[in-house]
C-alpha cells in the first residue's frame, strides 16, 4: 500500500485530502457521515475578528456544474471560535487549520495573535481572496503589493505554518503567489471562488442579494487546475490545490499538476462522505500504477 | 437520530394531481425516530441541469412497514425528473435533516397548508393524533387540482378545504375560511406553504395570541449546516434553516407582521 | 410581436443573436440546419494576416458543462478569406463580421486594411484575447496599455464598426473596456475563453497538445454574465455578451445585464440550430411580458 | 445528402458482447443516400457528465426498411449510457457526416477491422457486394468476445478472424494473418480500428503498393467542420477529420510508416 503522507511546511498530513473552508463547517456537521480523523486536515470556516452576520438571503444559486454563493463570511468571531468551537473539535485526530479572514490588516493580525495560543491549531490559511465582502477580502488578493503587505504583517505574529489562499480573479496568479512567498508564506492554497453572477429572468433581479457571488464546483475545475499548474511552476513552497474536485480522478489531476495536497469544497454538499472516497481512490490509483508514495505523482505531469 | 446517506428503493410513484406525485420509499435504515417537520435531501440522478440535491419534507412515515413518503410538486427540472421515477429505481437521500414541529404542551391545534406546503403536515397530524391532540386541518390551493389526499388527513383530524377558484371547499384564501369566524380554542397553529400565506397565518396567530410554527423552504446547498446558504433573518441574526429550522416559531422570525 | 432590432454603433441587427467566432465556421457549415439570414449577425473564424496551421492535435477536451479548445487560430489567412470565402458568403442576408486576430500590431493593421475593401463586411471584431497563441493574442487583452495601443492603431485604418473582443483572464475587465472605449472602439464584446487545463491521469499528460486551452460553454456563464454586467456599467458604448449561452433564458440574462446583443458559441456544437430557438425564445419572452422592444430589457436588471 | 438534426426511435438494442451493443434506429428521413464511412453525432440524454455529442460510424443501413444501425463499444460514460437505451426511446442524431470510402475503380478489396473499428466496414462490405466487388474481410480483436456479427460479414465477403489470445480464428495480430502470406491481388485495403493497427495495415499496403484508406477517430466537438478541433496532420496541413475525413487515403496522412 502506497504511502499517502504529505508535508506542507511543518504540517504533516496523513494523506493529501483536506476540506475547503466554508464548505465543511467546523467538522461536527460531518461526524455522522465520516471519521474526521481519516482526513489529512480540515480547514474551518472563515473566521474574523468580530462576529459577522454575512449577507442577506438569498445567498446561493445553482449554475451549470456549479453554484454561486454570497455567504459573506458569516461567523461568530474569533473569540467565539476559541471559547465555544475549539473545545469541541480540538481532539480531532487531524490537522485543524483556521481560515482567517478580515477587512483590515490589523484585524488579520489580531485574529492570528489570538489563535496562536491554541495548541491544536498548527496552521492558518490566510484568506486574501473572499469575493463576498465589501472592503478588504478579495482586494488583498488581487494586487501583489497588497498581498505582500498582509502576508508580511501576519508572518510577524504567526510562527506556525502559514498558508495564503489566493484569488483566481486576477491576470497573473503566479506573480501574486511569488509575492506572498517572498514575504514568508509557507504555502499557498488556490483557488478561491471565481466571481460570477446569475439572474432570474422572471423577476429581472439577480439571484443573489449581493448581485455577484463566488462560483465553485466542477465548472471551475479547468481554471483551477491551470492556475495550480502555473503557480506550482513559479514558487518553491508547497501548493494546496482546490476548485471543483469531486472525485479521486480530479484530485489526482491536481497532484500531477503540482499540488502537494488538495481541498474538497462544494462536492461535500452533494456527498458528505466524498472525501473518504477520494482518499481511497488516490490510494487505489497509486497501487494500481505501482507508485510507493503520493510524492511519485506530485508535479509529475509530463509536458 | 444519526444522519445518513442512504439509497432508497422506490416502492411506488403515484400521480396525485396534474403537478403532484407521491413517492413511497424503503431502505434498511430504521425510520422510527424521524420527526414531523424534518426533511430529506435528494440526489436527482441522470439530470444534467440538477447539480445540487433537492430538499423535500418527510410527508409521512409508515413506521410499521418502515416506509417513507415524499409528496412532491413539479416545480422545475429536478422535481420533474423525480416524477418519472419508476418502481424499483434507486433514490439517494440524506436524512433525517432539520428540527421538527414542537407539540409538548399542545392541546388543540390547527394545521394550515397551502399548495405543496402541506407535505410535512400529514406526518404532523398523524403524530398529534397518536398523542391524542385534537386538530383541525385546513388545506388550501388555487383549485381542486391542488388538494390531494383529503381522506388521509381526515383520519387524523377535522379537515377543511378552501380553493381560490372555489372548485373545492370554500372559495377564497385559507385565512378567510369560515373556521376562523369563531374561536376554536386552538393553542397552536402550524403552517406550511407559500410565504405570503404563512405570513397571513402568522398574522392571525399573532393577533389572536396563539403560538405559531411555520416551516420555511429556503434554497439550500448542503442541508446539513455546513454552507450557511439557507439562512433566514431572526432575532438571533442570520441562522440556518436546514439545521435550526425548517420549523420556526414565528416569534423568532423577523417577519413584518 | 416585439421589435427585436438592435443597433451596435452603425450595425443594424434584425435581432440580438449572433454567432461567436471560431464556433460557426464561415456560415456554410450551418446552411443545412438553419437560414443564416435569420440571424442578427455572424462572426466568422479568427482571421490572421498569414495562413496559420494552428496547434497540433489534440486540441479539445470535454470538461464539466464545458470544453477546452486549443485550436490556435488555424485559418488560411486574410487573402484566402477575401478571394475564396467572401464570395461564397457575401450574399448572406445578415451582418458578416470578421474576427481579426494577430500577433503584431502591424499584422492587425494590414488585415484590417485588406478587409476594408469588402463591401459586405460592416464590422470587425478585434480579437485581443485569444489564449491559444504563443505571442500576442491574449497579451493584448490583459493590459490596458496594450489593449489601447492595438485599438488605436486599428481605429486609424478601420472606419466601419469596430468591436473589440475582451479577455476574461484579467483582474479588472471594466478597466480594459474603458481603455479601448477611449481609443475609439465602437463596441466591446466579451468574454473570450477562460484559460483552463485538463489532465489524463492514465498517461499523466495534458489532454491538450498545448497544455492549457480556452474554456467555453455553460460552465463559464456565471463569470461571463458578471463581466458583461461590470463592463456595461463602466462604458457608454454597446456591449456584446457571450459565454456559455445555450438557450433563450441565458441570452435574456445577458441582455438584462446590459448586453445590446449576444453571441452563441459552444452551444452551436451541440445543437446547430440553437440560434434560431434562442431568437424565438427571446421573442416569446418579450411578448409574454408585454415588452414592445428588446430595448425594454437591455440593461434593465433591477438591483 | 443534406445534413439534419433528427430524432430517431430505438427499434432495438442488442447486446453483442461484454462491451458491444447494436442499436437499430428509425426516423422519417430517407437514408438512401447515406454512404459507407459516414458517421452520425449522437446526443446522449440524461447524462450529466456528457456535455458534447458522441460520434459513431454508420454501421449499416437497411435501405428497404429505412433503418440505421450503430455498433457501439462501451468506452466511457456516454457509450455506457447509450447501452442502457430501451426500445422505443428517442435518440437525437446529426447526420450524415463526413466523407466516405471510395470504391470507383476497385476490383478486389480487403477490409481490415480491429475492435469496434469494424463498425463502418459492414456497410462498406454491403455496398461493395452490391457493386459486385469481391472482398476479403479480416476481423481482429483481443479475444473472441471482441468479434461480433461474423455471419453478417460472411454475406458480403470471405471473412477471416484473428484474436490476440487465439480464442477465435488465428492467434496474433491482424497484420500477421496467414491471408497475407500469398498475394491475393487486392487493389484496395480499407481499414478501421485502433491507430497502431491501422498503421501496420498502412505499412503493409505501402510496401505492397496497394491503395489504402483508413477511417480515423479523432475526438470531435462539432462534427460539422465548424470548430477545427478534430484535425489530423496531412500533406495539406491540419485538416478536419469530420469533414475531409473520417476516411483518408494513407498517402495524404503524415504517418511515419
Ligand atoms: C426544507 C424544505 C422542504 C421542502 N419540502 C418540499 C416538499 O415536501 N414538497 C415539494 O414539492 N417541495 C418541497 N420543497 C421545495 C423543493 O425543494 C423545490 O421545489 C425543489 O427543490 C425544486 O427543484 P427543481 O429542480 O424541480 O426546480 P428548479 O428547476 O431548481 O427551480 C424551479 C423553480 O422553483 C424555484 N425554487 C427552487 N427551489 C425553491 C425553493 N426551495 N423554494 C421556493 N422556490 C424554489 C426556482 O427559483 C425556480 O423558479 C422544500 C424545500 C425545502 C427547503
Ligand atoms: C468518426 C468517428 C466514428 C466513430 N465510430 C465509432 C463506432 O462506430 N463505434 C464505437 O464504439 N465508437 C466509435 N467512435 C469512438 C466513439 O466516438 C467514442 O468511443 C465515444 O465518443 C466515447 O464516448 P464515451 O462518453 O463513452 O467515453 P468518454 O467517457 O468520453 O471517454 C472514455 C475514454 O475513451 C477515450 N475516447 C473518447 N473519445 C475517443 C475517441 N474519439 N477516440 C479514441 N478514444 C476516445 C477517452 O480518452 C477516455 O479514455 C468513433 C469516433 C469517431 C470520431
Ligand atoms: C458556500 C461556500 C462558502 C465558502 N466560504 C469560504 C470561506 O469562508 N473562506 C475561504 O477561504 N473560502 C471559502 N469558500 C471557497 C472554498 O473554500 C473553495 O476555495 C472554493 O469553493 C473552490 O473549491 P470547490 O470548487 O471545491 O468548492 C467558500 C465556498 C463556498 C461554496
Ligand atoms: C473551438 C473554439 C474556437 C474559437 N475560436 C475563436 C477565434 O478564432 N476568435 C475568437 O475571438 N474567439 C474564438 N473562440 C471563443 C468564442 O468565440 C467565445 O468567445 C467563447 O467560446 C465563449 O462563448 P461560448 O461559451 O458560447 O462558446 C473560440 C471558441 C471555441 C470553443
Ligand atoms: S443548506 Fe447549507 S447550511 Fe443550510
Ligand atoms: S469536430 Fe468540429 S471541426 Fe471537426
Biggest sheet overview of chain B: 7 strands, antiparallel
Q: Report mean pLDDT of chain A, rounded to a whole number.
A: 95
Measured by residues with Cβ under 8 Å of the partner chain's Cβ, the largest interface is:
A-C, 46 and 46 residues
Bound molecules: flavin-adenine dinucleotide, flavin mononucleotide, FE2/S2 (inorganic) cluster
- Provide the residue-averaged pLDDT of chain B: 95
Tell me, what is the CATH class of chain A? Alpha Beta
Task: List the secondary-structure elements of chain B in sequence, H or E.
Answer: EEEEEEHEEHEHEEEHEEEE
Distance between the termini of chain B: 35 Å
Quaternary structure state of the chains depicted? heterotetramer
Number of helices of chain A: 8
Uncertain stretches of chain B: none
Largest sheet of chain A: 8 strands, parallel, barrel
Which structural class do you get from the secondary structure elements of chain A? alpha/beta
Outline type of chain B: globular
Summarize the structure.
The complex is a heterotetramer, with two copies of chain A (303 residues) and two copies of chain B (257 residues). Chain A is of the alpha/beta class and 303 residues long.
